[in-house]
Amino acid sequence: MTKEGLIAQFIAACHCFVGVKEERPNGGQMVDLFLKATGLGTGYPWCAAFLAYVGKLTFSVDQPKTKWPVPLTAACLQIGNWAKKEGVLKEDCEVGDLFLLHYPSLKRFAHVGVVIAKVPDKPHRYVVIDGNTSTTGSREGWVVAKQERTINPSAGHRFVRWVDAMQLT
Question: In degrees to the nearest 10, what's the CA dihedral of 50, 126, 97, 113?
Fold first, then answer.
């Protein structure tokens, strides 16, 4: 499968979960499944765990010769460190990239999702799908949402071109 096909498959899988909500803070039937994909139980922030679950599910069933390359983690910092080591941490965006939001007050990446489209004529504006967010775009929310976000590399935000780390055969 081509890189474009892999990206389309991942984005389609993410779309299936839009609207999934917590049943209790950082928990519930689906949220617990997301967290379980990373080896955690209920009660933890789950934006990265959502992507781990979808990536693992998408590429272990239909793509036996490929594997989700991003660490199965609930930690945005770990994704950023992995991406930097692999040479896939970018300041420019392509559709399908993961985005990492940097929070200066925390001095680290603290939210992640996937870019599904660029917003025409609006620099640094993207349509994204992210988990553990709200309809106002907070990093600690209760839902998987499709929404617009500002993602600006000059603010320390980055993109992860995960598809370039896949072992395509």
Answer: -20
